[in-house]
Amino acid sequence: MPHLTTHVLDAARGVPAPGIALTLTTSDGVPIATGTTDDDGRAGLGPDVLAAGDYSLRFDTGAYFAAQGTDAFYPFVTVTFTVTDDRHHHVPILLSPFAYSTYRGS
């Protein structure tokens, strides 16, 4: 299992959000990994272990909603988080066209 995973749920429709492009970067903006959510809205990214530090995970949500013909307020969502240990990190989002929320998953 990759050190970082995510899960995107389309809260407005009550279904997983497949096909969302993802980019994991360092705090300096250096790309580490890219990916796309699968049919269940899930993806694994990055190396086996992320070094301690700050990272950003960008979700290209605008393209997802555009493909559905849905107007949306956020063209992308960026979640910035800190890695302090070698535990698995799960960064999910609950998404709608005009809101999102996130939490540290397990």
TrEMBL record:
Homotetramer. This is 5-hydroxyisourate hydrolase. GO terms for molecular function: hydroxyisourate hydrolase activity. Residues 4-105 form the Transthyretin/hydroxyisourate hydrolase domain. SUPFAM superfamilies: Transthyretin (synonym: prealbumin). Keywords: Hydrolase, Purine metabolism. Belongs to the transthyretin family. 5-hydroxyisourate hydrolase subfamily. Signal peptide: none annotated. CDD domains: TLP_HIUase. It catalyses: 5-hydroxyisourate + H2O = 5-hydroxy-2-oxo-4-ureido-2,5-dihydro-1H-imidazole-5-carboxylate + H(+). Catalyzes the hydrolysis of 5-hydroxyisourate (HIU) to 2-oxo-4-hydroxy-4-carboxy-5-ureidoimidazoline (OHCU). Gene3D superfamilies: Transthyretin/hydroxyisourate hydrolase domain (2.60.40.180). Its EC number is 3.5.2.17.
